Amino acid sequence: MASKRQQEYRAQHKRYKEDVAKEGKPFFPYAIYHDTIMSLVVVVVIIGLAVIWKYTADGTEAGMLGPLYEAKADPGTTNFVPRPDWFFYFLFYLLRIFKWPETVVLGTVGIPTLLLVLLMTLPFYDRRPERAVLRRPVAFVAAILVVISMGVLTWKGATAKESLGSETLSLVPGWAEQEGFAGNPVAVEGAGLFAESGCLNCHVYLGAGAQNLGAPDLSAEGAKGRGIEWQVAHLKNPSSKTPGSQMPSFASLGEENLIKIATFLEASKGPVK
Amino acid sequence: MAKSARQAQIEKAALYPLDWTEERTGLVGYTKWFLFRHVPRDVNWMQTLGAATLTAFLVQAITGVFLAMYYKPDPNSAYESIQNISNEVTLGWLVRGMHKWGASLFIILMFLHMARTFLFGAYKYPRELNWVIGVLLLVAGMAEGFTGYLLPWDQTAYWATVVGININATAPFAGPFIAQFLQGGAQIGPDTLAKFYSLHMLVIPGGIMAMIGLHMYLVLRLGVTSPPWSKTAAGRPRPDAEPTGDRTGLTREPSSEETS
Amino acid sequence: MTDAADNEEETRGHSLWPIGFAIGVACILIGLVVSWPAVLLGAAITIVSGVLWIREAAGTHGPVDFAAGDALDGGTPSPALAAAEGQHLETHGRAGFLTLATIGLGGVIGAAVTLPSIGFAVLPSFTGEGIETNPVDLGPLENFPEGMFVITTFIGSKDQGEVSRRTAYIRNNGLSAANDPSFTIIYSRCVHLGCPVQPNGPKFEDKMVTYRDVTLTPVQPAGFGCPCHGGAYDTEGNRTAGPPVRSLDRYAFSIVDGNLVLGKHFSVGTVEGTAADAKISRYGQAYPGVHVDGLERWLYPIPVPGA
Lengths: 273, 260, 307
What we know:
Largest interface: A-B, 78 and 88 residues
Shape of chain C: elongated
Helix content of chain C: 25-40%
Structural class of chain A: mainly alpha
Oligomer: heterotrimer
Helix content of chain A: 55-70%
Shape of chain A: elongated
Number of strands of chain C: 13
CATH class of the largest domain in chain C: Mainly Beta
Number of helices of chain A: 12
CATH superfamily of the largest domain in chain C: Rieske [2Fe-2S] iron-sulphur domain
CATH topology of the largest domain in chain C: Rieske Iron-sulfur Protein
Number of domains of chain A: 3
Largest sheet of chain C: 5 strands, antiparallel
Strand content of chain C: 25-35%
Strand order of the largest sheet of chain C: 4-3-2-7-6
Distance between the termini of chain A: 79 Å
CATH superfamily of the largest domain in chain A: Cytochrome c-like domain
Radius of gyration of chain C: 32 Å
Order of helices and strands of chain A: HEHHHHHHHHHHH
Number of strands of chain A: 1
Largest sheet of chain A: none
Number of helices of chain C: 5
């Protein structure tokens, strides 16, 4: 009644039991010795990390392994950038990939659940007795792909920067120096407004920015010679200057601020070599 | 002769407590069986990852029990108690550090152990259920990471939990109910922290310990696999005709032992 | 003999009543959360399938044990009947009773301990216990200059303290067409997964004022942005980019003795128009990431009680 494969499996396991009884070595002390060495390594690494953590950090000040604790939880914060623990970075970045409202549930629940089910039921669809990895090409390739994609997602999650005021404001002095407008206080002020006002949620400036919705790189916007007036009018009503633009109006920032931003854009003639 | 007789007497006296226990519990016999059972002679360094994972879990269990003596699961005092453990309590920094970094190591080791099992094809017959239990342990371990992350009640803790709970809330049909159960109400409030604490230190670890017990029982019952590339792998296919005399000379080659 | 035993296993294994019983219990548990009629329905299913299950379990003993008894006697034909009878009596009269009683009493003990505990663990989350309905006083209207957003952080519930601190972006729209005061009060949590959205524009920290435990900081945003997964909103809270599934949540408001008082929290599908003329499609408070309109709302058909 048992299938041929089932019989093969049973015979193999019977041979295994016999071989182990005949040719095997006692767990103690041969195998347990290695286990103990490995466990010692684990404990030493844990204690080592704990010591390095404590002695290079001080309270909320980060050391080599981050701070001992962040500021106390503030449910009403408006300038905190949340990040998960490192082993959830892959999920964190996966959620960024699904940037369309209709697909949110795929990233949050769909794909993780599917992967988990596939992982858990692995022995029930991979039923060949073959164990050598090179003779399991599908499993081998799938495993490599999973490891690579998890690695890439984790890496992208760990290095992800969101271009919001609280993060990008600190870049302004560097911009001023690289683009050579440090001597122009109006442009520097405009750069601050530019950084604060979410422009980099879509645009890119000197490598910073989220590059969304096909928005252009503005690092050399001033080289186009459009003039401050054009820039202000564009900021007030983008589609009047570039028809079909998805950019929202920034008129609510006020004329004075718009002129500052326009000055900054016109002063951005590309990085000075 | 007299000397060896005395030696025998001393030995007997020393072994008496063991014999006494064995007669009443049988535990000594079980322990001996556990220690001296055979494993394949070609087991590999990679196969120590399971024991390493267990060690990491034990570190978590022990440090966690003692952290519970100083930690206060209340939104108004949790953060201060973490500061107190890190800065004031003698050796508190070490135990908390071990718990924090042990958690990361535990997760890494679970993944490595799983990768080893996959590489060896060790999830195949008759070890299918042990793979399933292992995946459940991985899920439980990640759940420990998620619930434990809230406990320091700092900014990352709070907001990562907000996002985590809302991820659950997006599951079709049941999602909002799961989220509301986790929060203990419509918002993250005073009950949320206590609930996460209870899940983190009682509910999930209880499940993990039970599953580790089952996992290890199955390992003992089914045995550990030889590396599939080993020429002396236990359970290797034999030629149909059985000239056993020829084979022994070949298979006793020590060269392929312990490829690390 | 073994055949007979196998048969017995078969008939028991294929009974559907235990499944009905389980469905009934599940229905009761879900009903306790959702609605009373569901509890009654679940109770009915549980009782009916339970009774049928017991009847069936008791019924299968008769013929099967007869055969077993026959075989047990090892081929003595004439007293076989009597022996089978004895066996039958044994199972029905004592062993069978004990088996059923053990399972039944064990079930009662298990249910008596676990059901209240699980109910205790799960139900309070859905009864709305501990939800403060006291309105939050945000202070005099002078603190909200017309046409300007103000970052307002406040304690949502005095009992809960700091854990209930929330932030809203409030804009005084002046008077509406009907000469009523109008405020746009946007909740600061992203409707993708609940991260704190930030106003995209200069803050005026020097003009910050406080009123009791409320802090008010004027800001001039061109929109709002979320630092987690890149959601972006305009000044009405409508999504302009990224994954958010609806517009930012809002609060209702009232004006009491010249003070702005926060009202009910609600979710928003979309907002048409701006400021005082905005037409808001209003829904009950939903979790972030949950669609309230469009086809996707059918993914979340059951409203969560106690929210």
